[in-house]
Amino acid sequence: MKVRIITVCVLVVLGGCVGVGTVPDAIDGAEHTTADTEPTPRQPTTPSSARYDVDVKQIEDLIHEKMNERRVQNGVEPLERNETLDAVARYKSWDMAKRDYFAHTGPNGTTHPELRAQYELECGRSGQNIYKHKTQQIVENTHKFLTNSEKASKSAVDFLLNSPSHRQNALSSNYDSQGIGVFVDENGTVFVTQELCG
How many CA atoms lie within 13 A of 184 on its CB side? Predict the structure, then answer.
């Protein structure tokens, strides 16, 4: 079994990142659930998209594009988009919203390597950035922010790249692919997960 090297950093209440040097050969394949009786979906949906008319897919695509633009500007190769990484990222964002937490480790103790193992995802190097945006409690402000995919995606990318530890993770040359997962809860809070693989 390989040794895992994990670096965790949380700088601001609204962001976090984790980097893993290697992934173990095998991880306990136990099913993790959001509640004792509720199974976790592999492809979660966004319950508030109808209420706020959120184009989650467009926000994810724009975050991917903007991250790659910033990587190229900093002399780093752009990242390929990976569907399995997208699925992991979407699940992580959904899980944080569903269980009302904001951290790399779930309240049931599920770690980043364990989450990836559920999707049979193996990377020599892996990383995760998380971001949470809550607009003011005025419904009109929330709706205005969420329906502006350009603004919502720029907010996430700017935050992550203005934080030294998140920036180091997002712009690392150790990664060659990424997945982006956006989830908007019923209150209009945006959860973003960037999954990185190299």
Answer: 24
At 86, phi and psi to the nearest 5?
A: -60, -45
Give residues with Cβ within 8 angstroms of 76, minimum separation 6.
171, 172, 173
Check if the beta carbon of residue 21 is closer than 8 Å to that of residue 4: yes
Look at residue 57 in the predicted model and tell me its pLDDT. 93
Torsion angle of C-alpha atoms 113, 119, 120, 122, degrees rounded to 10: -50
Task: Tell me the HSE value of 185 on the side-chain side, using a 13 A CA sphere.
Answer: 19
Per-residue pLDDT averaged across 102-108, rounded? 93
Beta-carbon-side half-sphere exposure of residue 133 (alpha carbons within 13 Å): 21
Distance (Å, whole) CA 92 – CA 40: 10
Residues 6+ apart with CB under 8 A from 106: 32, 95, 99, 115
Element spanning 177, H or E: strand 177-184
Which residue has better confidence, 99 or 69?
69
Q: Would you state the structure tokens that stand for residue 75, as one six-digit string?
A: 């002399």
**Mean pLDDT (whole number) for 122-143:** 86
pTM, two decimal places: 0.78
